Amino acid sequence: MRCSGKTCPLLPVFRPQIKVENEVFGSSPPSLFVGRYGYPKVRVCPAVPPVVGDTRAYDTPEMWSEMPIDRILEYRYSMILAQFKADVRYDKLETIQEMCLYDRPVDVEVNLAKPPAARTHFDDILPPFGASAPAKGVKIYSTPPPPKAVEKAYYDTDMRAVEAISYLYEKGIAVSHIQKLLSAGTLGVKRKLVPTRWAITAVDDTLSKKIIEEIKQYETIDKYRVFILKETKNLFMAILCPFPWSYEWGEAWYPDTTWNRTRRVGVLTDSEGFFGRTSYAKLGGCYYSSRLATSEYLRRIRRQATAIVWREIYPGFKVPIGVWFVREMLRKMYSGNYYEFETLEDALSFVNKHSHLGVERWIKASNLVKARRQRTLWEFG
Questions:
Q1: Residues 6+ apart with CB under 8 A from 138
Q2: Are 312 and 231 within 8 A, CB to CB?
Q3: For position 121, what pLDDT does the model report?
């Protein structure tokens, strides 16, 4: 059974009866981390929890939208990283690459050089991991059949990586799985390992660009649509405006949160026009993950719009859990109900009722709201 963006029921997970200090046997979701420090010489780390069973929920963000954060962290902290050193230009690490072909757990054994260090790894792009240790080897004991689309992309060495990413997505392969495949160096013509954080953003960026080119061919929505989602000390707000495509993502980090240790709320936005952007977004990976979720919705309703999407992060939200949170929360938000308004002012007034920050503070930081408030000549006709 493969997940399709909804929360999947977990089958029982069984703990092994025997534990060997320097060996870990378990069912990898499958999971892989490729570091970026020292590039092109990097750490390549298959991740294995010391449990056997259906462990997909340990590393499948598409399953996490209805799951408590504490449970997700419990899964993540139990994952042991087996560290191998590799040069992305030459090393292939075929066993580790093979693990990433599957969308169901793979039973593996990793031989560690020493007991894993009990510490966690945090990142603004990636979900956290647990303990890690240098590894001597990894062995696959059993595998499920890989998805046919993945097999085709893997064996087609003439298919460019961008084409492979789009092909897999259209065939229903989960975004998180595509990201692993790219990171493992299993896609494209000139294949090489890609640091995980780069692969995550590359896939979100590539897919959303392709979808945006499609939705630009559609008519605009007729009225202003507002979506609201309150989730885990976060508030997500989207105002979709009846104008051609443009996009804005904004974040307001309150004090006592992951990225704000000051006493003031930090507000930052970034945006793009109809023809896209040429520079990397200053808000990083969340910009691209939010843009993917938003473009997916517009494609689903076969309309285009100017999308203004904001996020407020409230005190107490301190764990950097990765950009998957933004993508999956916005997918959840866009699958729910929305409110319609005739004017932008009415839409902003409604948002103001939900925003703790207040809409005036958002307007000061927003390029797209200011642009939409400026009446163009054709509006006087």
A1: 46, 82, 84, 95, 96, 108, 109, 110, 111
A2: no
A3: 59
Give the chain's length.
381
* Residues 317, 318, 319, 321, CA torsion sign: positive
Distance CA 340, CA 232 (A): 26
Q: Which residues contact 279 (CB under 8 A, 6 or more apart)?
A: none
Q: Using the predicted structure, report yes or no on whether residue 282 has a pLDDT greater than 60.
A: yes
Cα 260 from Cα 240, distance rounded (Å):
28
Residue type at position 312 = E
Helix 196-215 with 175-183: angle, nearest 10 deg:
130
- Inter-helix orientation angle 161-170/148-155, to 10°: 170
Q: How far apart are CA 253 and CA 213, in angstroms?
A: 32
Residue indicated by tokens 């804005």:
248
What global pTM score does this model have?
A: 0.91
Q: How far is CA 344 from CA 20, 206, 298, in A?
A: 62, 30, 19
Exposure of 4 by Cβ count < 10 A (0-12 exposed, 13-18 middle, 19+ buried)? Answer: exposed
**Helical H segments across the chain, by residue range:** 69-77, 94-99, 148-155, 161-170, 175-183, 196-215, 285-301, 324-334, 344-354, 359-365, 367-373
Q: What is the pLDDT of residue 260?
A: 85
Q: What is the pLDDT of residue 227?
A: 98
In angstroms, rounded to a whole number, what is the distance separating the alpha carbons of residues 222 and 76? Answer: 43
Q: Which of 40, 372, 29, 375 is nearest to 177 (CA)?
A: 29
Does position 222 have pLDDT exceeding 60, yes or no?
yes
Tell me which amino acid residue 297 is.
Y
Domain boundaries, the chain: 13-207, 224-380
Determine the Cα–Cα distance for residues 55 and 63; give it in Å rounded to an integer: 11
DSSP code of 79? Answer: P
The predicted structure's pLDDT at residue 116: 83
Say what angle helices 196-215 and 161-170 make with each other, to 10 degrees: 70
Helices (H), 131-265: 148-155, 161-170, 175-183, 196-215
